[in-house]
Design brief:
185 residues, mainly alpha, 2 strands, 77% helix, elongated
Length: 185
């Protein structure tokens, strides 16, 4: 035990590497949870109300933007969970920089997917909440308030997922910069 402790203290790069892998795993699990919550909230979002003897049903599948939010977050959630074991392979000492580049590239694609889905859902959510007087669209959130509140919660979770993927990108970019500097010496 004592020799292991001395070895870690004598090799700061190994301590940094273990910390880096731990942070990567933690952030990937956070991305999994936030995108999964966003998916589940929106996928189960449905409300039926009676307006002047007519029944109006609001559900996510009636809007392509909300469907995109569900599919985009489901894909990002699946990727985040699937990428956890690969962190140990990619960031081991024996791996090459090409595998870490591909991990960075996939993280970038997932971040872009989640941001696009969140943005599309935000635009439709805004129209649902405020309407658009120039186009003659009236707000619907006063009739289906529960649906709009759940959609808003899903969008917030989706933006949280985006933020976590962004942090993963920053960490990966910083690591590749440090690796490039170390390889020049």
């Amino acid at each position: 035990m004592e020799t292991t402790q001395r070895k870690i203290e004598s090799d700061p790069s190994e301590k940094y590497s273990k910390t880096y892998v731990s942070v990567q795993v933690m952030l990937r699990l956070m991305a999994f949870v936030t995108s999964l919550i966003a998916t589940v909230i929106m996928a189960t979002n449905k409300q039926t109300v009676e307006v002047y003897t007519f029944y109006i049903t609001a559900k996510f599948s009636q809007s392509p933007s909300f469907s995109f939010l569900v599919i985009g977050n489901a894909v990002a959630s699946f990727y985040a969970l699937l990428s956890v074991p690969f962190v140990f392979l990619v960031y081991s000492k024996s791996s090459n920089s090409r595998s870490s580049f591909f991990m960075f590239l996939f993280d970038l694609m997932m971040m872009g997917l989640v941001l696009a889905a969140s943005s599309a859902a935000t635009a439709i959510g805004y129209v649902g909440k405020k309407g658009n007087s120039h186009s003659g669209w009236t707000p619907i959130c006063d009739q289906v308030g529960k649906f709009c509140d759940r959609a808003g919660a899903s969008i917030v979770c989706s933006y949280a997922s985006f933020a976590v993927f962004f942090l993963l990108l920053v960490l990966s970019a910083n690591r590749s910069k440090n690796a490039a500097v170390a390889s020049t010496y």
